[in-house]
Amino acid sequence: MGDLVRVERRSAARAVQSLAAAFQDYPLLTYARPDPEGRARLARAFCAVAVRYALRWGEVHATAGFEGVAAWLPGEHFPLTAGKALRAVPLGTFLALGRYGGRRLRSAGAHLDLLHRRLAPPGHEFLFILGVRPEAQGQGHGGRLLRPVLSRLDREGRPCYVDTVNPGAVPFYARFGFRVLEESAIPGTPLTGWALLRPPGG
């Protein structure tokens, strides 16, 4: 993995901290919780669910200094089920996610999950979450997190799926061979969702 480290349980909190900083102004979280203080709590819970779930059912990598973190899931572990989630994520984290995000987060997430189920092909890998701390962005950390896993997927002949509600992420992913499958307004919200797929070989 070059200059990447494999995140394990003992380093999970550090990974969550980095991701929460990266996602502090993510449009989905800004919509779900407009006030900065509440959104900071929501970001921590949101990222903790992703990291803990992927530690159990997939893999999590970080740059050497934890400037950036990526969590990956084999497609068969999507969607998140209650049984799998409760075996991976502390109950208190879920309660915090509901308390600080609530209905808005669930309804927008449900739309993205529908896109995923409809559009992602069998055998795909899911880029569950990718984030780089604000002060470290623009330094190539995102690419360093993507390249090793994408290279492995190329060797395995497997596609990679990702979704986002951040318009700035779409051209970033395009540089690594992801193509937009669908762009859609998320009902009842001001958000737009993008579903992207990278075929083997980019």
How does this model look, in words?
- The chain has 202 residues and is of the alpha+beta class.
- Helix content is 48%, strand content 21%.
- It has a single domain, classed as Gcn5-related N-acetyltransferase (GNAT) (Aminopeptidase).
- Strands 1-2-3-4-5-7-6 form a seven-stranded mixed sheet, with helices on both faces.
- Strand 4, helix 7 and strand 5 form a beta-alpha-beta unit.
- Helix 3 crosses helix 4.
- The longest helix has 22 residues.
- The two termini are 19 Å apart.
Write a short abstract of this structure.
This protein is an alpha+beta fold and 202 residues long.
Quickly name the level 1 CATH class: Alpha Beta
**Total beta-strand segments:** 7
Beta fraction: 15-25%
**Helix fraction by DSSP (H/I, runs of at least 4):** 40-55%
- Most strands sheet: 7 strands, mixed
Low-confidence stretches: none
User: In the residues, how many domains can be counted?
Assistant: 1
Distance between the termini: 19 Å
| Relevant CATH superfamily | Gcn5-related N-acetyltransferase (GNAT)
Backbone CA Rg: 16 Å
The quaternary state of the protein chains shown equals single chain
- What is the CATH T-level topology? Aminopeptidase
Structural class designation: alpha+beta
* Widest sheet: strand ordering: 1-2-3-4-5-7-6
N-to-C SSE series? EHHHEEHHHEHEHEE
